[in-house]
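Bug #77: duplicate submission created two jobs. Keeping one. Sequence:
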Amino acid sequence: AGIAGLSAAIEAADNGAQVIVLDANSVGGGHAVKAGGLAMIDTQLQRSKGIKDSPKQAIADILAWGEDANQEWVERYAQDSSSEVYDWLVKLGVEFMLVLPTPESHVARFHFTKGTAVHVVLPMLHEALGRSNIVFLWQTGADALLSHEGRIIGVQVKNLRTGTPFNLYGNNVILATGGFQSNTDMVLENWNR
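Kept job's structure:
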């Protein structure tokens, strides 16, 4: 129930899916509660502050900076982050206040709310909790993907309070497990072995 999981759940629900969100914690937020801001390109906030940015410039910056950046994904994100991320979050009630330079560029495109990214997560969580076709299973860990004939058909999970294992099945499975802001040491430290 972090930024990626909540946005995937809301979008799936908007398209008619019955959604189950698993979270190992007892509250939502994921790793985003520790995050600072989000990098977005050519947003209304940037324009209102006189910051000139463009997808073309962002693509060049990110590809030059990223060690293993996927060009197709970078191009898509650079083209669509303003409408599909910034505008969507603002519509949910997120208020971005500040834009700072990102590591890959001197262009200010790192957007911040009144504090940490928890202020991005809370409106998303509120939206998801209000949906009748989204159910949350808190204190539930995913242990393995279930497959049949080469297709993922579900997830083997465990209630972390009781230790009770069970399986969930569905037409689609989305993994949104977070990455601790690309901090490999934190990922490895928290990896479920």
